[in-house]
């Protein structure tokens, strides 16, 4: 390979989602040359990995990508899928990034003379800095037990779910009760499908409390600006599951107990299939109780804030369970249940095997401080809790991108001074 023929960029951004384009925006603002590489199309995940009735769980006013704040008529509403795509299309048009779409990065390796060699499906390039903006949701998680289930049962991952009509007639088992699992279970429930839900340890929160959206209260209380270093769990908070709630139909709580009262069947964590029966943990009572404790705990924190600030608001309240399990059910006869389909909602694994840099821990997660790694020239953007709780949202990813670009600009300026000397 002749390095003289390889096109060089000061910065290469891997990933063309909102994080990558936010980085591109700030690089352009500072006049730093760069290239965005996207293996699909920019913002593709929002169009291809969300169900038809998907909507934001945070109010529209939190949508504040660089140079592109939400300016629609419903700042306290929740954009639905088509509106999200339109908002992101508008952002891309404003950024007008230098991007190569349909190009995958095969390998990034350090060069002996400094910087990086970037091998892609459309040829090789080099860069002084690499910003990894591909997120952390790469490989859908489906347990090996899925291979032993009867072939007649349709199985899909949450990233493939679109609507109830795509699944065969019959009951549906939703595995996982995080944001996707709880919302997909609700989507199927509202469509009139019989739903079995394997409940995990995800927490929940209220949609509205004491006259305002809970997100708005928490924003006023500084929760979304708390750096990971100040959180009681420190970096451990990055492993937390997000609270389940929905913005659907103007926003409301998701109460699994209410669904159960209406006919949804709740079980504990799915552990195995023995050839005839599904086997579950007996953790359902504990999981529901813990989710409610979190719900009431957040509301209590809001109560304290209201009292401390002397804010006029409707009176406080406390959630009381509307349904209790009659007892733990450790097994479910698969044939007798009528389950015709399973939707796996148990997350994704990161896959950064293409990046040859000593920046990962034993679980394959990058180690960094606000996106800046100990490996010179390697950065990450768009990960949950990159810096704050808001880092994975439209409202704060631009702030994280600005920080990284400032770091790159300072390094480039330092290299320029050294060259001049």
From TrEMBL:
Per its UniProt record, what InterPro entries does this chain match?
Auxin_biosynth/cation_transpt, CHP04046_FMN-dependent, FAD/NAD-bd_sf
In Pfam terms, one family for this protein is Pyr_redox_3
Gene3D superfamilies, per database record? FAD/NAD(P)-binding domain
Q: Can the keyword Membrane be found in this entry's annotation?
A: no
Listed A to Z, the keywords are:
Oxidoreductase
* Protein's name according to its UniProt entry: MSMEG_0569 family flavin-dependent oxidoreductase
């Amino acid at each position: 390979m002749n390095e003289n023929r390889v096109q060089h960029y000061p910065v290469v951004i891997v990933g063309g989602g909102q994080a990558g384009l936010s980085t591109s925006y700030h690089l352009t603002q500072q006049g730093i040359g760069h290239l965005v590489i996207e293996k699909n199309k920019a913002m593709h995940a929002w169009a291809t990995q969300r169900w038809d009735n998907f909507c934001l769980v945070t109010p529209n006013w939190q949508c504040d990508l660089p140079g592109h704040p939400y300016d629609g008529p419903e700042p306290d509403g929740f954009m639905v899928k088509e509106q999200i795509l339109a908002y992101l299309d508008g952002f891309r048009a404003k950024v007008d990034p230098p991007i190569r779409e349909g190009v995958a990065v095969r390998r990034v390796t350090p060069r002996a003379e400094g910087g990086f060699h970037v091998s892609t499906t459309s040829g090789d390039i080099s860069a002084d800095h690499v910003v990894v903006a591909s997120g952390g949701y790469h490989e859908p998680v489906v347990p090996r037990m899925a291979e032993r289930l009867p072939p007649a049962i349709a199985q899909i991952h949450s990233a493939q779910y679109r609507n109830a009509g795509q699944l065969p007639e019959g009951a549906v088992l939703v595995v996982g009760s995080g944001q996707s699992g709880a919302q997909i279970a609700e989507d199927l429930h509202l469509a009139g499908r019989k739903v079995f839900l394997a409940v995990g340890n995800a927490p929940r929160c209220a949609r509205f409390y004491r006259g305002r959206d809970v997100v708005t209260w928490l924003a006023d209380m500084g929760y979304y600006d708390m750096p990971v270093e100040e959180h009681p769990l420190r970096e451990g908070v990055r492993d937390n599951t997000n609270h389940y709630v929905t913005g659907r139909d103007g926003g409301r709580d998701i109460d699994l107990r209410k669904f159960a009262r209406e006919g949804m069947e709740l079980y504990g964590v799915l552990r195995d299939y023995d050839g005839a029966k599904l086997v579950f943990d007996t953790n359902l009572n504990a999981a529901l109780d813990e989710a409610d404790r979190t719900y009431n705990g957040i509301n209590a924190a809001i109560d304290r804030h209201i009292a401390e600030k002397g804010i006029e608001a409707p009176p406080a309240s406390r959630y009381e369970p509307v349904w209790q399990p009659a007892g733990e059910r450790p097994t479910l006869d698969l044939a007798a249940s009528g389950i015709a389909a399973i939707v796996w909602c148990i997350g994704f694994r990161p896959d950064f095997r293409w990046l040859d840099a000593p920046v990962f821990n034993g679980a394959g997660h990058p180690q960094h401080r606000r996106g800046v790694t100990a490996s010179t020239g390697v950065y990450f953007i768009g990960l949950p809790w990159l810096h704050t709780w808001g880092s994975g949202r439209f409202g704060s990813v631009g702030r994280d991108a600005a920080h990284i670009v400032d770091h790159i600009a300072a390094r480039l300026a330092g290299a320029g001074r050294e060259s001049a000397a």
